[in-house]
Amino acid sequence: MALGSTSITVANVHTLPYSVVTNVGQLATLYNPPLGSMLTGSSATFQWNGSNTATAYWIDVGSTQGGNNYYQSGSLPTTTLSQTVNNLPIDGSNLYITLRSEIDGQWAYNEYPYVALNVPAELAVMQTPAPGSTLRGNSVTFNWSAGSGATAYELDAGSAPGGNDVYQSGNLGNIFSVTVNTLPANGNPIYVTLWSMVSEQWFNHEYTYTSGP
């Protein structure tokens, strides 16, 4: 992460009960979801208490301490006190949230451990068209495998990750294919989200295609 200023460690990951000792002003502190808890889905909204000395915030989510392989927000204004992160793992793995506060031109941080939701059932997986391929024309049929433990499916297609401005199927029930007739065929990326309902919750895999002529 290139922030253009010196990063200094103020607090590390703590096992609960959670405590923070800082020496560079008051840092923003995360309070929701409950610290150290297991997340409830593949998306989570992280909320924090602001700092009265910070001039900006930054939140990273990763599989290792200080990592950002799942998400990095970039610099956020001090009016922003929450951030929703999508496409988190659902395999019971450890997650680390790094909440940074910019104080006097330096980035100081607190880190927080969480556990990803553990979904034992296999989710549906796209079979055709092959993920990453170029879609031909305005009409394409998407086919996927059945997910063990899944009771319903849904497919969205959009011009941005997680979007549905191109197509939204709604709940398809126990159906394993759908034809989309509204593709733009303009050479731009198309983002397809395949949802599986497991234990009354929706989880997804995301795929990227190119909308070809």
List keywords for this structure.
Immunoglobulin-like; single chain; mainly beta; 213 residues
How far the N terminus sits from the C terminus, by CA atoms, comes to: 38 Å
The proportion of residues forming helix, as a percent range, comes to under 10%
Number of extended strands: 16
Q: Name the overall outline.
A: globular
CATH class category label of the largest domain:
Mainly Beta
Radius of gyration: 20 Å
Q: Biggest sheet, open or closed, and with what strands and sense?
A: 5 strands, mixed
- Helical stretch tally: 0
Overview of the structural elements:
- It contains no helices and 16 strands.
- The protein is mainly β.
- It folds into two domains: 7-115, Immunoglobulin-like, CATH 2.60.40; 126-212, Immunoglobulin-like (Sandwich).
- It has strands at 7-9, 29-32, 44-49, 56-62, 71-72, 82-85, 94-103, 106-115, 126-128, 134-136, 140-144, 150-158, 167-168, 177-180, 189-198, 201-212.
- Strand 7 (94-103) and strand 8 form a beta hairpin.
- Mean pLDDT is 86; it is low at 1-24.
- The strands form four sheets. The chain has a five-stranded mixed β-sheet with strand order 1-8-7-4-5, with no helix packed on it. It has a five-stranded mixed β-sheet with strand order 10-16-15-12-13, with no helix packed on it.
What is the secondary structure topology, with strand pairs?
Layout (H helix, E strand, L loop, with lengths): L6 E3 L19 E4 L11 E6 L6 E7 L8 E2 L9 E4 L8 E10 L2 E10 L10 E3 L5 E3 L3 E5 L5 E9 L8 E2 L8 E4 L8 E10 L2 E12 L1
Parallel strand pairs: 1-8, 10-16
Antiparallel strand pairs: 2-3, 3-6, 4-5, 4-7, 7-8, 9-11, 11-14, 12-13, 12-15, 15-16
